[in-house]
Amino acid sequence: SQRTKIKALLTGTPTGTEVTVKGWVRAFRQNRFIALNDGSTNNNIQIVVDFENTDPALLKRITVGAAISVTGVLTQSLGQGQTVEIPASTLEVLGDADPEKYPIQPKKHSLEFLRENAHLRFRTNTFGAIFRVRNTLAFAVHQFLQEKGFVYLHTPIITASDAEGAGETFHVTNFDFDKIPRNDVGEIDYKQDFFGRATNLTVSGQLEGELGAMALSDIYTFGPTFRAENSNTTRHLAEFWMIEPEMAFYDLKDNADLAEDLLKYVIQYALDKNKDDLEFLSQRLADEEKQKPQNERSEMSLLDKLQFCLDNDFERITYTEAIDILRESSHNKKKKFQYLIEGWGADLQSEHERYLVEKHFKKPVVLTDYPKEIKSFYMRQNDDGKTVAAMDILFPGIGEIIGGSQREERLDRLEQRMDELGIPKDELWWYLDTRRFGTCPHAGFGLGFERLVLFVTGMGNIRDVIPFPRFPKNAEF
Ligand code: 4AD
Ligand code: MG
């Protein structure tokens, strides 16, 4: 008979039906009870083996990690811990897993250990749950934006532009290293790579996205982006996925409204679709919290945190107001935040962001109107001459989850800013053309997808929420 997924078996298949299940053995107890998992849910189905009438050679091959196929009649279980089970009428081992060598055992492994075994960590409850939730969040992003009539625009991975102007790009070359053209002093001539043109992996699809928005009105990108920053933090990857909506005729407030609606929609979607997995991850986090000293423990469970985020408006304040709050806190609490106030104009450190979100407002914060010196050239200049219409969204436990802005649509102001910052106008002639022909107010933002998955799963390290994390010196699998 046809194979049935375990999730379907546990949630609706009537008992008395003969079914075939295929999956990987999670545990085998007393030569009799197999816990079988196929990734459709964290729950295992119990297979009951009639060991007295089974070939001992076959029994020996039922080990943790082995792939098996089982046929039998779905039956009400009398044992504890499960409602149904399958007494195996036929059992076939499809792929053995040598118990001496298979690294994943039916016990709790450390996340560090599993990171080193990232090729097999999918087979644990924790990572099964994380990657199902990640999948749901990706789908929900598309669903939300598609329902609003946004066009999914595929922007290039290989590009000649460095959208953020930060210079943290990975170079792309099709040259044989030994044959790379060099100048007189032996330096590589980067202008000659990519068939004679200097290119890099994209850091953001925004600039290309703006071209789309200036004709299709509302677009979004959703793809991998690359940053060559040598940062080894729990919040940074060298390759991460970003969602970048870009909307014509939007101002900064419209932009923030869309971002807040999007975040709430996808969180709600995951709560509805992956309730089991989020309950599991919530319990996992609660167990982890218990290891911490009392005063460092989080007061809220993961599920409560997600619900709280849905039930409350995000706080919206300007950078200048944030600086005032931080300054205030540094007066009150004496030493604690003294180091942080370098004065108006300085970029906020992650400690400052955490203070605002976790201690002061205790909810997501939309910070707007940053000093122009610490933000990108394309952000719209405000009338005060000092700030730009930027927007960062800060989340509890995460920090910056979204960065965005209203864009500078006035050609003269944009060119003037590029000159001030030394950004070559001739290289971005195509971008400036949008301001020459039918320019209009527009805005957009970038949502770091892994930071979203971090928040929703309650995990602590960004390397645990992407199947194959890329960070300095880690690219094997
Ligand atoms: O703030 P960023 O650099 O903004 C941009 O790239 C804009 N072009 C977006 C836009 O307006 N269309 O990055 C946006 C988000 C950050 O808020 C963060 O969530 C995430 O991308 N991000 C990273 N995530 C993981 N690892 C990194 N190294 C990241 N750098 C940024
Ligand atoms: Mg940013």
Give the structural class. Answer: alpha+beta
Number of domains: 2
* Radius of gyration from the alpha-carbon trace, in angstroms: 27 Å
Mean pLDDT: 92
The total of helices stands at: 14
| Fraction of helical residues | 25-40%
In the predicted model, the low-confidence regions spanning at least 5 consecutive residues are none
Largest sheet: 8 strands, mixed
* The named CATH superfamily of the largest domain: Bira Bifunctional Protein, Domain 2
Task: List ligands, each type once.
Answer: 4-amino-1,4-dioxobutan-2-aminium adenosine-5'-monophosphate, magnesium ion
CATH fold-level name of the largest domain: BirA Bifunctional Protein, domain 2
Which percent band covers the strand fraction? 15-25%
Query: What's the CATH C level of the largest domain?
Result: Alpha Beta
- Return the CATH architecture of the largest domain: 2-Layer Sandwich
Catalytic activity: tRNA(Asn) + L-asparagine + ATP = L-asparaginyl-tRNA(Asn) + AMP + diphosphate + H(+)
Subcellular location: Cytoplasm
Enzyme class: ligase
InterPro entries: Aa-tRNA-synt_II, aa-tRNA-synth_II, aa-tRNA-synth_II/BPL/LPL, Asn-tRNA-ligase, Asp/Asn-tRNA-synth_IIb, NA-bd_OB-fold, NA-bd_OB_tRNA
